[in-house]
Specification:
With 545 residues, the chain is mainly α. Helix content is 80%, strand content 0%. Helix 8 packs across helix 10.
């Protein structure tokens, strides 16, 4: 049991090492890799080459699949070209497996040492993560080899693994399940090669596990994008079709391949990794000319809605973008901008509600507050799925800014809802009217408020210090104007102007609430200025006074 536990721990270390390498590469080079993929739109062969190159760096065809899916969802890339990328990505995974199969365990301590020094220094934390991951992969492979050699005398384990050799379909199923559990087909292929080298795994079972690992990586992409946009879900589904087609094509030739391997009599690991590479190359050669047909088939399986409901909107918060923090933050920004648009609609309706006695207008505008609350909750939940350790320092700051902006928009909507309810209950229902001078003052404050909203949105998107300082300075000017209008209203009230007396409480409350809205809109300016002036601390809520 001790030896078996050591083997399981070594396998877990292998999986963890591959995850560290992938996360480090995405953090360090994610934006450049996305740019490379986005530029590979000339033809299917260029797309295949780009997919191969990016996967060779990331060491994960699943990560490449998620990037390609996000491009299709954004309509940056056509589906046939994205599927061609996936054919190249699978070849890239095979080449990575060949490279990692070399006995480089002597490099493991050096890689771990360099990676830890970089991480502790906090200057090259992403590169440090990559070095630590590579060191752990090499160390894990060494431990797996040592553990399997100790287990060669366990008759029970030998019997269980030998049983896989008698049923290729069973081995294929087990390989797919292991790839799903490990979240990595690469780790399962490497593990299979080590077990076969130690004579613990029959060659037929090893080939079945490799085929299953390929199918498992395709299923992994489908499951990962299950809640993404329809267009994004088509890419991993098409890749799964490639893999299933390849398995159906290759499986009948497994006995012949086994006979050839026995005749060659060389290293078992070389046979398995060579088979893995050959399988993905054959799949690429067979299907590179059929990407258009497979795209049509996938679109029939996942058809676009023929008649979307009126007013229906597809959220920008794509789950397929989460593995790429830069893209995920862009999605959150787009959703926050839409939230601001809804808030703007509420605010723009206030003057009309004051001017007219239309009871239905405040009711319709107040109903938008539920939409704003829903959007804010969705943005917060989406950002919470981004682990802080997976974000660079600037990305952590940006996440805090997005969250603060969404919360401030929610609070502005709450104030707007209260204002509209006051107008309804204290002016429209009693049939009162505000004085012409009072309406002019409120409209002037409102106009400046809408200008501030546009400036706040510009600061949120551009993050320019000059604009942020202008936004902060505008807050003081607005406060002075609000106090001046409050004083002039009191002068009219003292003169016993009927309209001013009837709506005095509403008028003073209204300009005070507009000032509160203005403070929330200026909060993003403080966030941008403080980002440059002080060490980073996430802006989790409103900075409005």
């Amino acid at each position: 049991m001790t030896r078996l536990l050591e083997l399981v721990a070594a396998i877990a270390l292998l999986v963890w090492g591959t995850q560290l390498v992938r996360a480090g590469v995405l953090l360090a080079f994610g934006a450049n890799l996305r740019y490379l993929l986005a530029r590979a739109v000339g033809n299917r062969f260029a797309a295949l080459t780009a997919g191969l190159g990016v996967t060779a760096v990331v060491q994960s065809s699943t990560a490449t699949s998620l990037m390609a899916a996000s491009f299709v969802a954004e309509r940056v890339l056509a589906l046939p070209l994205a599927l061609a990328m996936m054919l190249g990505a699978d070849i890239g995974t095979s080449l990575v497996a060949l490279a990692l199969s070399l006995d480089l365990s002597w490099l493991s301590p050096l890689c771990i040492l360099v990676g830890v020094v970089m991480t502790v220094a906090r200057r090259q934390s992403e590169m440090g993560r990559i070095f630590v991951g590579l060191g752990l992969v090499m160390l894990a492979l060494k431990l797996v080899r040592a553990s399997t050699m100790e287990l060669t005398h366990m008759s029970a384990l030998q019997g269980m693994l030998t049983g896989l050799g008698g049923d290729v379909a069973l081995a294929l199923t087990v390989g797919a399940a292991l790839a799903l559990v490990a979240y990595s087909s690469l780790a399962i292929v490497l593990l299979t090669a080590v077990l076969a080298t130690a004579d613990l795994l029959p060659a037929s079972a090893a080939l079945g596990l490799v085929l299953g690992a390929n199918v498992g990586s395709g299923l992994l992409g489908v499951l990962t994008t299950a809640t993404a946009k329809l267009e994004a879900r088509r890419v991993p589904l098409g890749n799964l079709v490639f893999k299933l087609g390849g398995v159906a094509l290759v499986t009948p030739f497994v006995p012949a391949l086994l006979a050839w391997a026995e005749a060659a009599g060389s290293d078992a690991a070389a046979h398995i990794l060579g088979f893995h590479l050959a399988f993905n190359v054959v799949v690429a050669l067979v299907f590179i000319g059929l990407t258009t047909q497979v795209s049509a088939f996938v679109e029939r399986c996942l058809p676009s809605p023929t008649a979307p409901k009126e007013g229906a909107r597809t959220p920008h918060l794509a789950a397929s973008a989460l593995p790429t923090p830069h893209l995920a933050l862009s999605c959150a920004v787009r959703e926050a901008v839409y939230q601001a648009d809804v808030v703007e609609t509420m605010l723009r309706g206030i003057p009309a509600a004051l001017q007219d006695n239309d009871l239905g207008l405040p009711e319709r505008l107040r109903a938008l507050d539920d939409t704003v609350d829903t959007l804010c909750s969705a943005i917060k939940a989406y950002l919470a799925r981004l682990a802080p350790e997976a974000l660079s320092l600037d990305e952590q700051r940006r996440r805090g800014e997005i969250l603060a902006f969404a919360i401030n928009m929610e609070q502005v909507a709450d104030i707007a809802e209260r204002v509209l309810l006051d107008v309804e209950e204290r002016k429209i229902r009693p049939g009162r009217r505000m004085s012409a001078a009072g309406l002019t003052e409120v409209n002037e404050l409102h106009a400046r408020l809408m200008t501030t909203l546009s400036l706040s949105l510009g600061v949120f998107l551009g993050r320019q210090q000059r604009d942020a300082r202008e936004l902060v300075d505008e807050e003081q000017r607005f406060r002075e104007l609000e106090r001046a209008f409050a004083n002039t209203h009191l002068v009219r009230y003292a003169g016993n102007t009927r309209e001013s007396v009837d709506t005095s409480g509403l008028h003073l409350d209204l300009i005070s609430e507009l000032q509160r809205v203005h403070s929330h809109l200026c909060a993003i300016g403080y966030a941008v200025l403080e980002e440059r002036a002080a060490p980073f601390s996430p802006a989790w809520g409103s900075q409005a006074p």
